[in-house]
Amino acid sequence: MKLKSQRQKAKESTITKIVKAAEKLFFSKGIAQTTMDEIATLANCSKATLYSYFPSKEELIFAIAKKGNEKCQSMLTKAASSFNTGADKVRAIGYEFFNFAATYPDYYHYLSLYVSIDLYKMDDENAKALLNIDKILAENIEIGIQDGTIKDSANADVIAKCLWFMAHGLIQFISNKGELLESATAIKTKDMLSTCFIILEDSLAVDPQYRGLIDKNPHMFDALAKKLLSNKTKV
Predict the structure, then answer these.
(1) Do 91 and 27 belong to one domain?
(2) Residue 172 domain flag
(3) Same domain, yes or no, for 156 and 208?
């Protein structure tokens, strides 16, 4: 039993080293520019060992996405726990999701890459969990419906998925085209963020508050917009 435990610990240690090596190389060089040989060398393991745990780069992308998923869910759960009503929780989750993307752009990028991998063919339960990244949001939308702070015509699961993809699109646009938008027009990315939150809340909340919050603190999205504009992830 003790020997088995030692073997399991050694296996977990090797996997951790491989994922950290892949993460470092992918983040600094990009996926296409990184070879499996380089990952094995940095992880201090043989290619045979590397391939026994991760037969392809796709599995490594998933492992990194899994870490990003865990970090993101931890941030969202913590943000929601600071409030009582469903509407307040959803508002906090929305802001914190953008904050996650701005603070951890590489993890966010690799987390978003899961849509290009056929996870439905993967048996790992953790892989299936990535398909439910919006579960926390849906649960808190339902809390809002039940406590009367979110309109009862809303379908929590459908709304959560819509919000997830809308947020993803806006984050991608700001990170990739935000500077061009600001230089070519009078539109500021911070105004896009605040307007997006206002529109979404107006459509869902019984008593929308973002307009008032932004009126009191017109710079609440400045830092977030600045971080998103500076994100340049290697692919």
Answers:
(1) no
(2) yes
(3) yes
> Is 182 inside any structural domain?
yes
Please check whether residue 235 lies inside any domain of the structure: no
Dump pLDDT digits (tens) for 44-94: 999 999 999 999 998 898 889 888 888 999 999 999 999 999 999 999 999
With bands split at pLDDT 50, 70 and 90, how would you rate the model's confidence at 200?
A: confident
Q: Distances from the Cα of 56 to the Cαs of 26, 38, 113, 190, in angstroms?
A: 14, 13, 15, 39
* Residue 187, token pair as written in the block: 């539109």
pLDDT at 152: 86
pLDDT > 80? residue 201: yes
Instruction: Work out how many domains the chain is built from and give that number.
Output: 2
- 110-122: pLDDT as tens digits: 887 765 555 545 5
Domain that holds residue 1: 1-55
